[in-house]
Design brief:
The structure is a single chain. This protein is mainly alpha-helical. The two termini are about 15 Å apart. It has one domain. It contains 2 helices and no strands.
């Protein structure tokens, strides 16, 4: 297996892993809001936004492997 194949597998794994966590973060943010912890929920959502942005860079890295 060459580096391109290894990179594709690894990057796709990271991307999927991040996407799974994004769903969890939103669920948790809603739970925090329900408990009246709005500021904490806001921070979780901001962090999720940054993670979504990082996934865009992973997508670009995959595309650049072609």
């Amino acid at each position: 297996m060459d580096i391109t194949e290894k990179a594709t597998i690894r990057i796709e794994h990271w991307k999927k892993h991040n996407e799974d966590h994004l769903e969890e973060y939103e669920t948790f943010a809603r739970e925090l809001e329900a408990a009246g912890k709005n500021e904490s929920a806001r921070h979780i959502r901001q962090m999720a936004t940054l993670m979504a942005e990082s996934n865009e860079y992973l997508r670009r890295a995959l595309k650049a492997l072609d």
